[in-house]
Amino acid sequence: MAIEKINYKNFYMSDDRKDLTKNKFLGNKIEILQFSDGYRGNMDSVLVAASVAAESGQKVLELGCGNGVALCCLLYRVSGLEVYGIEFDKRVAELCRRNISLNNFTAKIFNSDIASSISELRSLSFDHIFMNPPYFKKNVVKKAPIPSSNQAKVETVPLSEWFSVARKRCKPKGKITIIQRVERLPEIIECLGSHFGQITVQPISSFKDTSPKTIIVQATKTSSAAFTLLAPKTVHKRDSVSGKVVYEEELNKILRSGYPLLLN
To answer: Domains (ranges, CATH) in the chain?
Structure first.
């Protein structure tokens, strides 16, 4: 599948477009243009990228790459990667390409449904595949007032299909990484099946005294290593002096400075 060339001199270059905002991530280290009426990159995008233990020279694929926040975070942290992304929304895929260029990175972005066959990817296998798929099943939540935002939050492709694509494209001993709601862990384990082992689950809690609502799951293809449930990572705490809510030190390094999130 050929990558459509975009004339970036005319596409999304005007700072006064009312449907776009420019946001900074990793403590102002990367800039991202985002549509004001749709899905917007957030902390989950940064965390899942931080969890990908990629090394220079490896191939990485993101399924459902959106406007490129996670890809840019990963490319900032690890140089020398060969990076690909798949995004089904044409205008978002185009914006992702623009954001990659804006931050002086290189990646190939395909405008396609993840379930569709992309000829250029058939001959490729990846060291790392990661994803931040919609959290909610269809008909489980009320529709969001903005269709494009709702589309990003409610799945149109079953989670099993995401894992099917990941399994086909992942190298033996390659890793897949996903961020999801904690209640979908049983479904994730089922989707991994017998093809993946060394499953590691990292719960994420807002505060130390609250139950985790989010998990990061990482698994290795053709591995038989044991399952590991890690202690929750806490995002926020109250400052002992001011009482203000601030990031925990480890999360602050990840979110502000681009540190990796080590799953061990």
So the answer is: 20-257 (3.40.50.150)
